[in-house]
Amino acid sequence: MENCLFCKIAEGQIPSAKVYEDEHTLAFLDISQTTKGHMLLIPKKHVRNTLEMDEGLAQTVFARLPKLARALQKATKAGGMNIINNNEEIAGQTVFHAHIHLIPRYSTDDGLEIHFTAHDSDSSALNSLADDIRSEVGQ
Ligand code: 5GP
Ligand code: ZN
C-alpha cells in the first residue's frame, strides 16, 4: 500500500535490520529497541491489523512465532519475552500495517511495563458476555 511504512520496509525501499524473510513474512528489529532485540514480525501483504486478517494469513504469520521467539531468546540470552500485537489506536497501534512485537525480557525494570488491573465481575455478567461473543464467533 502506498505510503505505508511497513510496506516500504517489506519492499526494501526503506532499510531495516532484517532477521528473517520468506515469501509471505518478514521479521526485523524495531527501531525503538524497547529492550535489546525488540523485533517485529509482519505479513508482506498489507493488512491493517489482526482484525483484518483472514485465517490463512493469520496461520502463515503467527506460525512463524515459535522459531523466531526461540532464535531471539538464544541470540539475546533473555530470560523470556512478551509477544504483543496492538490493534487500533486505543490499544497503542501507531503503524497501521499488521505487526507482532517480540520483546525479550531481562528484568522487571528493563523498559517494558505491563500491568493487568483486576476488576470485580459477577458470573452472570460474564456468562452473558460469553454468550454474546459465542454468537458473534458462530458457536
Ligand atoms: P505499534 O505502536 O504500532 O504497535 O508499533 C509500531 C512499532 O514500529 C514501534 O515499536 C516503532 O518503534 C516501530 N517503528 C516505527 N518506525 C519504524 C522504522 O522506520 N523502522 C523500524 N525498524 N521500526 C519502526
Ligand atoms: Zn502496509
Strand percentage lies at: 15-25%
| Average residue-wise pLDDT | 97
Under CATH, the homologous superfamily reads HIT-like
Helicity level, as a percent range?
25-40%
CA-atom Rg in angstroms: 17 Å
| Bound ligands | guanosine-5'-monophosphate, zinc ion
So, CATH architecture?
Answer: 2-Layer Sandwich
Say how many strands there are.
Answer: 5
- The count of helical stretches stands at 4
Structure description:
The active site is at residue 99. InterPro entries: HINT, Histidine_triad_HIT, HIT-like, HIT-like_sf. This is Histidine triad protein. With 139 residues, this protein is α+β, with helices and mostly antiparallel strands. The chain has a single domain (5-113), classed as HIT-like (HIT family, subunit A), CATH 3.30.428. Helix content is 29%, strand content 18%. The chain contains four helices and five strands. The protein has helices at 5-10, 55-62, 65-76, 123-137; strands at residues 18-21, 25-29, 39-43, 80-84, 100-105. A five-stranded antiparallel beta sheet has the order 1-2-3-5-4, covered by helices on one side. Strand 1 (18-21) and strand 2 form a beta hairpin. The mean pLDDT is 97. Zinc ion binds at residues 1, 4, 6-7, 46, 97.
